[in-house]
């Protein structure tokens, strides 16, 4: 029985790899963050507001989100050890703060584990009401969801640098009946909420138990939601010491075989094979391999923490590109509408025709032809049917009208931010770190 005085592993390598002994964020880091916020507020947000971008993408960028710590999302079937892994990384085993774990589905909530001055639990409603946090946009998922969102704050060196999110386990279809409380509404909102976290995660740990590899409908759905986020995904074959080496090799192959059709990328995600919990590895298993794999995973996590500001700049630039494309499209719809309007035209019919059949008017093609826009960044046409269904054409001005003597033009500002200001901020950070020849990269965002 594991409770009867099991051997615990040494955890010092976790402290060392994640460099938890370092102190506060450096002045350099704070200055770069301030500059990033300024670029967003002066160059991107005005365009967002003028063309009601948030109503199209439903992705409102808040200051809390820009300044938030990197987020690590734990996904996967139930009872694969997601909560145990968080307990292990934070050293919560056998403490009063330990996340509850068990063989049955235990987490039916989204649990956000973050830094705080003292240990306390926060209700989802309180988290969503606080605009300084990055979770305020979750309010749109309604009361029912907020009751299943819980925050846990605790003083911890690792949580000063990263936030963990534990999610309800995926239950594959044949076990669906066991999850009696699931209704269609729950599933839809669960998928939307899951998407919200996926879109904001810096690292996604998709955890599996090698003894029950079950790839079905819900997991397929999850991979569809993670499309375009493949570089953030890491697959984790947890509890690896519960199998013999031969069986482990077989399961590793089976995992890739079942994942291949779901992940259509040339570079498959990195798979980590180990046992992420505090108890010693089972006898006669690949201890050395597991320890190496764990060290690699910790380095991976550390890299995400170290690259926080670079990732935020890239995120804001990508967001700016989407906002710009949206503004160009709305402008094109407006231009087409004014061109087609005759003396005796019915304004409603003219605009409906354009919205229902944009290809007839080369709306999307003209954007690709005239501007440096990738077809992969274009939203779908249906999104604009919904968008203009809510926002009448009369509520927008053309881009050429969004200019002033003192403030310049909105389009020029956002283009300057995308092409010059954000790349310049990124390269200034690269130079600031200076050439280092130490064995471990210097942690430039923390005072040494």
Automatic annotation (TrEMBL):
Gene3D superfamilies: 1.10.268.20, P-loop containing nucleotide triphosphate hydrolases. GO terms for molecular function: GTP binding. PROSITE patterns: G_DYNAMIN_2 (PS51718). It is a peripheral membrane protein. Residues 66-314 form the Dynamin-type G domain. InterPro entries: Dynamin_N, EHD_N, G_DYNAMIN_dom, P-loop_NTPase, TRAFAC_Dynamin-like_GTPase. Keywords: Glycoprotein, GTP-binding, Membrane, Nucleotide-binding, Sarcoplasmic reticulum, Signal. Its main location: other. It comes from the Eukaryota. GO terms for cellular component: sarcoplasmic reticulum lumen; sarcoplasmic reticulum membrane. It is found in: Sarcoplasmic reticulum lumen; Sarcoplasmic reticulum membrane. This is Sarcalumenin. It comes from Seriola dumerili.
